[in-house]
Design a protein that fits this description.
Largest sheet: none
Distance between the termini: 50 Å
Number of helices: 11
Mean pLDDT: 84
Structural class: mainly alpha
Length: 264
């Protein structure tokens, strides 16, 4: 009987994973991330309900007789405030905790595409952001009687689901550097001041001139004009804001990926 030696094996064998299995790995990881967060209401409910309660109190109850375009302005601003939360906390807190308890190291050792883990978290953040915007739209039209067309509502929903991505990258950066217990506090120190300083709670025109000049350094200050345009307000050029958000997301992601490769 002839013996087949390793050296005699064909050299043209492709050891790469077939694309069907790669796609299946991405789908399975995204599904597991969604199920994991849906089964943890103690984490997801605050992420989704905190911004909606802010909007109910400050956007509807305290401004129910606001004139002109103020209701739509408040809806767009609080939509930006709302979609920041799933990106920052959904990505940052969970990544920091998973780094600390060793789950991230385990996932990196598994035979799965390295991007599947991040894509699953991004998809979950986008779905959560979409849920926040839908809640705000329901409250705006049902309780606040905000004059809004179906097209404007759909554009705001799309803006929110895509606009969460730079904040996912920022949350990933924080989660790559901060330990699990410290991540919520650090992210709150970013989330709340950035919301105020970028004019989401108070229009920039009412803030001191120094803060107005510093506003463009915050990613949320670039997402707000896109949200305002979605609801029919604002006449500024949108491409500079889109490019700024893309740049923020790319820089944050590259810094976080570099940290994770070095430290894990």
């Amino acid at each position: 009987m002839n013996t087949l030696h390793v050296a005699d094996a064909p050299r043209s064998i492709d050891h790469a994973m077939p694309w069907q299995r790669v796609l299946g790995a991405y789908v399975a990881e995204a599904r597991s991330e969604c199920l994991r967060y849906l089964r943890a209401p103690g984490f997801m409910l605050p992420v989704m309900l905190f911004p909606t309660m802010f909007y109910l109190l400050f956007g509807i109850v305290m401004n129910h007789n606001a004139p002109g375009d103020v209701p739509r302005y408040l809806l767009a601003s609080y939509a930006v405030f709302g979609v920041m939360s799933p990106g920052l906390f959904g990505f940052g807190v969970s990544l920091a905790a998973e780094r600390e308890n060793g789950l991230l190291t385990l996932k990196r050792a598994l035979p799965m595409p390295p991007g599947a883990y991040l894509l699953g978290k991004m998809l979950m953040a986008m779905l959560a952001a979409g849920g926040v915007v839908l809640l705000l739209l329901a409250m705006a039209t049902g309780l606040g009687h905000v004059p809004l067309s179906a097209g404007q509502g759909m554009r705001l929903l799309l803006t929110g689901m895509l606009g969460v991505l730079p904040f996912c990258a920022l949350g990933m950066l924080v989660g790559a550097y901060v330990k699990g217990q410290g991540a919520p506090g650090v992210l709150n120190l970013i989330y709340l001041p950035m919301s105020f300083l970028s004019g989401l709670w108070i229009p920039l025109a009412m803030l001191p001139a120094t803060l107005q000049r510093l506003a463009p350094i915050w990613p949320s200050a670039h997402l707000q004009p896109l949200a305002l345009s979605a609801v029919g307000l604002g006449k500024d050029a949108l491409w500079p804001h889109v490019l700024a958000l893309a740049g923020y997301g790319l820089v944050f992601f590259m810094l976080a990926a570099r940290r994770l490769r070095r430290v894990g």
